């Protein structure tokens, strides 16, 4: 059931995306009506959360069943504090051995209240995925809001609510009801930026558990396609692996765990505090094999054969496997009710991705594996990059992926049917109607995900 408007995009961005999903190859294959229908479903499903919360279990620290048991106990404690305890399901994924899935209940019938709290779009997306409202995300609240007041929470769709507003008439959507944990004055009138929970959600439109502080070393919130990437890369104990754009480190830590923490995982990112986050995550998950460096990956190849340093830049042919989880336009992220980016910004990533690709191929050993992934839905950043890479680097060949639970690649980049079958594109719009009603587990969990793309290459 659709309760939110379609994702709000700038008109030229909508037209650009429409031209992608109604390209000549797609129209020839499925026809105008079906292509148009898929595009409209994409715009609708992007504003809604996926139907399952995915947890990557730290199976290098404990058995999956033990983590499932502990998680169940922790979440039951959380529910005892809730006004509406639910039946809790925690389901192991039948094909991915370190994944637990929790069904999301929604949209639920929740009555709107007269007292309204307005939050930013990013905060609103987090609330739809089970988070409480943290104080820094609050933009507006009733003039006399006090701790303990019941309030309705709304997300500002266009970024127009002024911080500190007492009312807001702009475009907004209802997310559910909660209890204020702070007075208005604490949120807006102190010198220090507010911290902690501002509104505790008690009747959200989409019900899923809050994972704030829940088993931080054993249960790691991660989108299902992001977990699949680590398995597709297929790391083995003793290998040296490069994660080129690693922050915040979820995939880095997964790679190290899959290797049994035996070998070396080098993580690079350009932003210093993101490197600190990767190190914190590695420490929390008790992973010793990760070495994180603040470095621009486009410059990570050294031309000096006498290079002896532990960190970047590295000599060519230095790594057994490389993960290029590339910076991208992020148009597959869900829920996302509004993107204010211009078409120029949306289209700015392809050149950077190609620079990173050049580096990745040089750093990869012969016989090594390169996995390229994005969390976007455009052809330019996905299938077109694969076509370009195969043309630019004759040493690369596409490889089958395991597990392959997403759809195949999208038509429109001139790739052959065999090549498209080797790609993995998570396309929630293809099953948006079914996921709302009839599709059984795990099909629903595998198809109703964020939009995501994975390609796996071998360097011959």
Automatic annotation (TrEMBL):
S-adenosyl-L-methionine binds at residues 245-251, 269, 325. Residues 144-460 form the SAM-dependent MTase RsmB/NOP-type domain. The keyword Membrane does not apply. This is Methyltransferase NSUN6 isoform X1. The keyword Transferase applies. Pfam families: Methyltr_RsmB-F (PF01189). PANTHER family: NOP2 YEAST -RELATED NOL1/NOP2/FMU SUN DOMAIN-CONTAINING, TRNA (CYTOSINE(72)-C(5))-METHYLTRANSFERASE NSUN6. One of its GO terms (biological process) is RNA methylation. It comes from Parambassis ranga (Indian glassy fish). GO terms for molecular function: RNA binding; RNA methyltransferase activity. It comes from the Eukaryota. Keywords: Methyltransferase, RNA-binding, S-adenosyl-L-methionine, Transferase. The active site is at residue 375. InterPro entries: MeTrfase_RsmB-F_NOP2_cat, MeTrfase_RsmB-F_NOP2_dom, PUA-like_sf, PUA_sf, RCMT, RsmB/NOL1/NOP2-like_CS, SAM-dependent_MTases_sf. Belongs to the class I-like SAM-binding methyltransferase superfamily. RsmB/NOP family.
């Amino acid at each position: 059931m659709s309760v939110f408007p379609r994702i709000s995009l700038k008109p030229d961005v909508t037209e650009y995306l429409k031209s992608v999903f109604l390209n000549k190859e797609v129209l020839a294959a499925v026809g105008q009506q079906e292509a148009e229908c898929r595009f409209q479903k994409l715009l609708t499903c992007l504003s809604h959360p996926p139907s399952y919360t995915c947890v990557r279990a730290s199976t290098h620290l404990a058995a999956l069943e033990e983590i499932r048991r502990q998680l169940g106990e922790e979440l039951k404690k959380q529910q005892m504090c809730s006004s509406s305890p639910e039946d809790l399901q925690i389901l192991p994924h039948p094909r991915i051995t370190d994944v637990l899935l929790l069904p999301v209940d929604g949209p639920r019938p929740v009555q709107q209240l007269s007292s309204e709290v307005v939050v930013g779009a990013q905060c609103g997306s987090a609330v739809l995925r089970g988070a409480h409202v943290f104080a820094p995300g609050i933009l507006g609240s009733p003039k006399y809001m006090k701790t303990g007041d019941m309030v309705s929470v709304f997300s500002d769709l266009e970024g127009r609510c002024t911080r500190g507003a007492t009312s807001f008439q702009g475009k907004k959507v209802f997310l559910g009801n909660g209890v204020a944990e702070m007075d208005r004055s604490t949120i807006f009138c102190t010198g220090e930026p507010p911290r902690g929970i501002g509104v505790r959600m008690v009747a959200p439109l989409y019900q899923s558990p809050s994972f704030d502080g829940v088993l931080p070393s054993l249960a790691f919130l991660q989108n299902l396609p992001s977990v699949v990437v680590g398995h597709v890369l297929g790391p083995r104990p003793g290998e040296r692996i490069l994660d080129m754009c690693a922050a915040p480190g979820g995939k880095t830590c997964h790679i190290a765990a899959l290797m049994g923490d035996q070998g070396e995982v080098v993580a690079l990112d350009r932003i210093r505090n993101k490197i600190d986050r990767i190190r914190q995550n590695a420490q929390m998950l008790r992973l010793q094999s990760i070495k994180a460096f603040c470095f621009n990956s486009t410059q990570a190849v050294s031309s000096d054969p006498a290079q002896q340093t532990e960190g970047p830049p590295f000599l060519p042919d230095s790594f057994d496997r490389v993960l290029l989880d590339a910076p991208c336009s992020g148009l597959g992220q869900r829920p996302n009710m509004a993107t204010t980016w211009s078409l120029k910004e949306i289209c700015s990533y392809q050149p950077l991705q190609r620079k990173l690709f050049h580096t990745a191929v040089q750093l990869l050993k012969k016989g090594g594996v390169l996995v390229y992934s994005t969390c976007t839905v455009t052809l330019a950043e996905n299938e077109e990059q694969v076509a370009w890479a195969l043309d630019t680097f004759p040493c690369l060949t596409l490889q089958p992926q395991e597990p392959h639970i997403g759809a195949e690649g999208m038509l429109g980049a001139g790739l052959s049917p065999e090549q498209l079958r080797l790609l993995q594109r998570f396309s929630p719009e293809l099953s948006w109607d079914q996921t709302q009603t009839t599709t059984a587990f795990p099909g629903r969990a595998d198809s109703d995900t964020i939009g995501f793309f994975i390609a796996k290459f071998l360097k011959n």
